[in-house]
Amino acid sequence: MHFKPIGGPAAWQGKRLFETHHWPMHLTAADLDELTAAADNTAALPLAALSRENFELPQLAPKLASLQTELEEGSGAILIKGYDVERFSAKDSERVFYGLATHLGTAVSQSSAGDIVFNVRDEGYQTDDAKTRGPNTSKRLSFHTDRCDVIAFLCLQQAISGGENQVVSSVAVFNQILSERPDLLQVLTQPFYYKRHNVDAGNADAYCQQPIFSFCESRFASAFLRVLIDRAYVDDNTPEMTPSQKEALDFLEAVCERPSMHVEFRQEPGDILLLNNWITYHRRNAFQDHKNIARRRHLLRIWLAMPNSRPLDRAFLANYGAIEAGALRGGMKPIVE
Questions:
Q1: What is the distance between the terminal CA atoms of the chain, rounded to a whole angstrom?
Q2: Could you tell me if residue 114 is left (phi over 0), alpha (psi between -120 and 50 degrees) or otherwise beta?
Q3: Residue 84 CA to chain centroid, in angstroms?
């Protein structure tokens, strides 16, 4: 297959992301008043019942709608500053964050329990605990994508030190690999095995296969989670990873690691980060945290299916449930009892 470099605003490298007109966006005092009023007016409703129709944001909603375009057609990464964590309790912030997210997309489940808002913090689980996943530890994570169109984070409080965010354009990574090792790009467009996540108990499939880089109707899309790939290839029920596959994955990660390719910043309390998983990878550094869980680094996370999302290759159907542009897709299937 013959590939060409991809142009456009999604192909940013390093600190050029900070030069985009949407970085950062600032909430105004009027925006915060609208969020407060919407939270108060829907206080009797469960989170799952919130919608853009009942969580009314007359002035802020058009601003959020414009971010849909930037996430899909622009840089794929947006930082929103100015949310006042002192104004709301953690529980109220969950409502405000979820209500705000309804004006961007549709939340999908992040676990077999059907969680639509996930608490990102070190829960102190043992390494062999089935509930352990990267976001609820304090360790450094590798560059990856999550199983949704857009991932949203709201920072409630930060760690003592560390925990910086790093974001890289997967479009720029594709271009770099094309320039330096086009032979490995051919490997990365072929299917890799992924093992079912240990918290994805509602999924009947033990494995899926999907490429790292793909195109559908000329639209680029990349999905990457090395930990699930590695788990699949050490399993007795799958073939061994080939040397060329390992070299390709290692080179991709090495490109992401280059300071010229990614950006690093610290999400401060009140910062909301939005990332399009199809054109960016993200990770966070290890951090030193408080022993008291009430004072630990704490982010809220929502997985969103977007109404203006791109079409996907059929290889993603098993893992995402739908591949059509704008489809409700991604997330984890809740267990039906």
A1: 46
A2: left
A3: 23
- Residue closest to 165 by CA, chosen among 21, 74, 299: 299
Q: What is the DSSP letter of 153?
A: E
Domains in the chain with CATH codes: 9-320 (3.60.130.10)
CA angle 11, 174, 133 (to 5 degrees): 95
Phi, psi of 65 (to 5 degrees): -60, -35
214 neighbors 189 (Cβ within 8 angstroms): yes
DSSP H or E run through 118? strand 118-120
Residue with tokens 């990365």: 188
Strands 77-81 and 25-26, by their bridges, are parallel
Tokens at 41, concatenated: 């007016």
| Closest-CA residue to 79 (of 309, 282, 255) | 282
Tokens encoding 317: 């159907």
One digit per residue, the tens of pLDDT, for the chain of length 337 reads 789 999 999 999 999 999 987 899 999 999 999 999 999 999 999 999 999 999 999 999 999 999 999 999 999 999 999 999 999 988 899 999 999 999 999 999 998 889 999 999 877 655 555 555 667 777 889 999 999 999 999 999 999 999 999 999 999 999 999 999 999 999 999 999 999 887 777 777 789 999 999 999 999 999 999 999 999 999 988 999 999 999 999 999 999 999 999 999 999 999 999 999 999 999 999 988 888 888 889 999 999 999 999 999 999 999 999 999 999 999 998 876 5
In 3-state terms, what secondary structure has residue 298?
Answer: strand
Amino acid at 86: E
Report how far residue 299's alpha carbon sits from residue 85's, in angstroms, rounded to the nearest whole number.
11
Pick from 203, 120, 113: nearest CA to 154? 120
- Buried b / exposed e along 34-55 (16+ C-beta atoms within 10 A): bbeebbeebeeeeeeebebeeb
